[in-house]
Description:
The chain is of the alpha+beta class.
Amino acid sequence: MKVAIFGAGVAGLSAAIELVDRGHTVELYEKRKVLGGKVSVWKDSDGDSIESGLHIVFGGYTQLQKYLDKIGTGDNYLWKDHSLIYAESDGKQSFFKKANLPSPWAEVVGGLQADFLTMWDKISLIKGLWPALAGNEEYFRSQDHMTYSEWHHLHGASEHSLQKLWRAIALAMNFIEPNVISARPMITIFKYFGTDYAATKFAFFRKNPGDSMIEPMRQYIQSKGGRIFIDARLSRFELNDDKTIKHAVLRDGHTVEADAYISALPVHSVKKIVPNEWLEHDYFRNLHQFVGSPVANCQLWFDKKITDTDNLMFSQGTTFATFADVSITCPEDFQAGMGSATGGSVMSLVLAPAHQLLDLPNEVITEMVMKEIHDRFPKSRDAKLLKSTIVKIPQSVYKAVPDVDQYRPDQVSPIRNFFLAGDYTDQHYLASMEGAALSGRQVAEKLHQRMGG
Length: 453
Ligand SMILES: Cc1cc2nc3c(=O)[nH]c(=O)nc-3n(C[C@H](O)[C@H](O)[C@H](O)COP(=O)(O)OP(=O)(O)OC[C@H]3O[C@@H](n4cnc5c(N)ncnc54)[C@H](O)[C@@H]3O)c2cc1C
C-alpha cells in the first residue's frame, strides 16, 4: 500500500518509521527545508545550532525511547540529577530534590526538605495534592472543566506554592499560566511525578534534538525505502464523488496520489487544508476548538561560564520560564570551537508566556532577557555576550485550556482514506514529543486495521 504523509515533525516521522517497517511504500512531504517541526534544529551562517525550542526527554517517554532504540540512537541522551532547580535573584538557587526513597515518599520527603516553601505550603501541598496522587485517568478527565489555579485553591493548597513551584511547571509544559491551563494536564503530571520516580527523571540530547534524534530518524526511514520531500507544502485535497481523497495538491502544483493520506500537520495547519465538504462532520469542525500557544526560544552565547548547573532550570517572575546552559547539558554541541562558542555558557531559554513578546523587536527582547540573566546569574555581569538569537513560534502546541481535551480527534477520520497524526490527537500524553510519537504509532496501527495491506 502507498501512504503519503504530510508534515515531518516527530508525529510524521514516527508514522513513517512504523509504516516502512510494515513494508508499505511511504512518501513524506514537509513544507520546510528542515525536518523535525517544533523539534527542528538548523545551523546558521556561523555554524551554530539554532533550536526551535529547548527540549528534554522524560523517563516516561517509552514510545519515543523505543523508536530511538530501533534507529540505533537509544543512548543519544544523558540523564540528569532528579531535581527541580529554581534560579533566584543574586545567583541563589532553590531545589525540590527527590529523596532516595520509593515514591511517593521520595516526593513527600523531598517536598518537606524544599527550602523555598513554608511549612504551611508543604502541609497544604501534601493534603491538597493527594486527590491527584490517588487519582486515575477517569478522575483526571473529570477535572478538565476547571483551570489549575481553581483546582489548586479548591484543594486548599497555598497561593505561595502555586506561584513558587507550579507556575513554572505550567509555563514549561504548555507555555500558559496556571489560571489558563486546565487542571487535567497538571494533575496528571503530579500523579507521574508523585508515584513513578523513573517516569519523571529527565535527560538532554547529547548534541541537540536535531542531530541526536531527527537526523537518525530520517536516515532510518530512507534506508527502508521511504522517500522524503522537503520544501513540499500540502495545499489542498481534490476529492472523489464519495468525498474520499482523489489526490493531494502541493503548493508548486504537483499532485500526490496514494492509497491512504496522513496529515501530521500541527492542528492550526490542518484546519487550512480540510475541504469544506468535510465540515459536515463534527470530527473536522471540532478542530476549530484548538488554538496554538505562542512561545519563543532565545539562545545566548557568552565568552565565560555564567553557571555550572548541569540540569534544566526554572525561574519565576522572568521572561524565561525554563532554560539550561546547553554548553554543559549537551556535551557534544555548543563547545569551544563549534560555531560562535568559545568555551563560555550557551544559554537556551524558553520564553513564556510569549503573547506580549512576539511583536517586539528581537533586540528589545534580548535586552529584557539580559537584565534578568544579570539578576539570576551574577557571573554574567562580567561576561561578554557574543551572540544572541530568538526563534518565535506564534502557534506552537495547542493550549490545554479547560474543556478542550474532549475534542482531541481520534487518528481515524470519517473519510476512509484520510488519517490524522500529531501531538494534539487523542493519545494519553499532553502535547509533547512522546505524544507525537504515540500518535505516529497509533495512526499506523489504525490505518493498517482499516485499510489492510
Ligand atoms: C519551545 C518548545 C519547547 C518544547 N519542549 C519540549 C520538551 O522539552 N519535551 C517535549 O516532549 N516536548 C516539548 N515541546 C513540544 C514538542 O516539540 C511537540 O509537542 C512535538 O514536537 C510536536 O510534534 P508534531 O509532529 O505533532 O508537530 P510539529 O512538530 O508541529 O510537526 C508538524 C510538521 O508539519 C509541517 N507542516 C505544516 N504545514 C504543512 C503543510 N501544509 N505541508 C507540509 N508540511 C507542513 C511543519 O513544518 C512541521 O514540520 C516543546 C515545544 C516547543 C515549541
